[in-house]
Design a protein that fits this description.
3-stranded antiparallel sheet, 7-stranded mixed sheet, binds S-adenosylmethionine, 18% strand, globular, alpha/beta, 288 residues
């Protein structure tokens, strides 16, 4: 005789209506826009968090997500929803452009000895800002005369912890020249630990680029790297991001984007600059 001792629990089944409600909510909070084709990716992570929080179903979880004052669960979920793919010296031509064209131009126009400020958003696990720091040390003569501050931000708090720790896989450092690898890293098992001097050269902060309150104090930058984030944004969030960058940059400051990214609104606010290694965008003088 067959016995059904274990009847299935009501599952956290997520309907299309639930998905659409969540998609709209998450977009408003993060600027990240999920197409229908990403439904499996999104549902899987929602189910993971519904189970981890012991919530009965999507409805209960979604209510908690919206109403929780601390925002802790939204942060946990955001950490799962982000795509953190990155590696050292990714799109290296822009770092060449930085040291051979952008920085020489910045210091030529500099009338004060204030530090040169670079904002790298999103940082993911830190390979990009640390690549910039190494490039400056290895390839930019001006480093002995100028202070440089590198601030690097991301919305994902768990990836920021990894960035601060500076421990990397072989895959992550595979494009690094052997001499740099030897100079700046120590092998630990099959991983690589970045040296403390470089770790302390970059300040990591949690910033949601789509939240004006988060970016308000980010001002007076000379260069912004924003690579491989706008691909996850729609036109409206991209336009907002451009306006944020405009406010964050000094007059004549530069923006470097990922190679496949363009920004609506950018053409009206920034000039296109074609340097030998890369095309970048430049803010005008405030009076222009
Ligand atoms: C693909 S990584 C890009 C990393 C690096 N810039 C690069 O090009 O290699 C995208 C990063 O964007 C971050 N991100 C997504 N939405 C964000 C937002 N609204 N504000 C800040 N960072 C965000 C994610 O957490 C993720 O680490």
């Amino acid at each position: 005789m067959t016995t059904y001792a274990f009847l299935p629990e009501p599952g956290p089944g997520i309907t299309m209506e639930d998905f659409l409600k969540f998609k709209e909510f998450f977009y408003r909070r993060t600027g990240i826009s999920f197409e229908l084709s990403k439904r499996y990716f999104v549902d899987k992570r929602l189910v993971e968090r519904i189970e981890a929080t012991g919530t009965a179903n999507f409805r209960g979880y979604f209510t908690m997500l919206r109403l929780q004052v601390s925002g802790e669960e939204l942060q946990q979920l955001t950490n799962l929803m982000t795509v953190n793919e990155t590696y050292f010296l990714r799109e290296e031509y822009q770092f060449r452009c930085l040291v051979d064209s952008i920085l020489p131009e910045i210091v030529r126009h500099r009338t004060s000895s204030d530090a040169i400020r670079i904002w790298c958003i999103p940082s993911s696990s830190g390979e990009e800002p640390y690549s910039i720091a190494m490039y400056l040390l290895e390839r930019w003569g001006g480093i002995s005369q100028w202070d440089v501050e590198i601030i690097s931000s991301d919305i994902d708090t768990s990836i920021l912890r990894r960035a601060r720790g500076g421990r990397y896989s072989a895959r992550s450092v595979q494009h690094m020249p052997a001499r740099w690898l030897e100079k700046y890293f120590k092998g630990v098992g099959d991983e690589y630990q970045l040296c403390d001097d470089l770790r302390s050269a970059v300040e990591f902060t949690r910033v949601n680029l789509s939240e004006p309150a988060d970016t308000l104090s980010y001002r007076n930058f000379d260069v912004i790297f924003c690579r491989n984030l706008l691909i996850y944004f729609d036109d409206v969030s991209r336009a907002t991001a451009v306006e944020t960058f405009y406010e964050a940059l000094n007059p004549l400051g530069f923006i470097c984007l990922g190679h496949s990214e363009s920004m609506s609104r950018i053409s009206s606010l920034f000039k296109v600059r074609k340097f030998p290694d890369a095309i970048v965008y430049q803010k005008g003088l405030e009076t222009e």
